[in-house]
Amino acid sequence: NLLAPWKSQGRMHxxxxxxxDGAYILGGRNTFDYFLGDYDxxxxxxxxxxxxxxTGQGGADSHESSLFQVEEYFEGVxxxxxxxxxxxxxxxxxxxxxxxxxxxxxxxxxxxxENYKELFDGSYDYLSHTVPTNRIRLVSGPTGIYGKEPxxxxxxxxxxxxxxxxxxxxxxxxxxxxxMNQTLSEIVNTVPDVKMVINSVENGDNFVASSDYQYHxxxxxxxxxxxxxxxxxxxxxxxxxVIDDDLCAIGSYNFDLRSTYMxxxxxxxxxxxxxxxxxxxxxxxxxxxxxxxxxxxNYIVPDHVTVVEVPFWKRAAWKVxxxxxxxxxxxx
Length: 332
Hints:
The protein has 332 residues and is α+β, with helices and mostly antiparallel strands. The protein has helices spanning 33-36, 67-78, 96-115, 151-161, 178-190, 207-222, 257-261, 273-287, 312-325; strands at residues 16-19, 23-27, 45-46, 49-53, 135-140, 166-170, 193-199, 226-230, 235-236, 240-243, 247-251, 266-271, 290-293, 299-300. 30% of the residues are buried.
């Protein structure tokens, strides 16, 4: 509504799929080819989700699953007055583009049925492909369309402060303010090993966040956190963290101002040594292709890592956009 521009920044950033009372998947992956995987090109983003299987479905303890925490959250958002039907036009189904895309999806579905029969005939053993957990808790923030209290950031960082030996954070990019930097400094001063992995500006796909990072990189470095920049050729989009050996979190929250103060966000906090170990393994593969930030301008670069050359015009555009965004960084 052009007459109410103050409403224009409300954004739902959650990503999850619930199937009956059996299972759900939650993470940071958006629903289009760049994130899901393109059948025709190699253009893609690396992402991360967690699948939760409800072992008690159909029984007396069925509703003890965290699945129903996610379902309750969904119902709350679904029933908000800001959520409404996008269109109700039956004629749209007859449009050529709609017919083409529907046929494409049906063809892909048939291919999936052929290639992964066990997923469709009921023989897939979810128990053997998942690991046990002690506890799962959904962490969510406010869902209104205006500015929000930093509930998700606060909850995650309070958990980090309790770590006894390590905290590992993977986020596509980092855009922080003084409060966030101060909190990260407190964690660094409390926990023996704290590191963060982000995309390098050369490797990442978020132009605005890259522009801001170059103005405030010094502030992140000043927190004392061990900072690594990923240069693996594909942009990494996963949002997750590990605390010690038995606690991990996966979801949609970026360590930036939008996720902290503007968007709706979900993180699933899971207590499980086995799952945390798996996640550390996946994180380690990403970290092999990272350079270590020494200070604002210098790096330690592994021999096998090639940093992409960025043209002058793009670096100049980063500087200009970053400068223009400073008064409204929270929207970056």
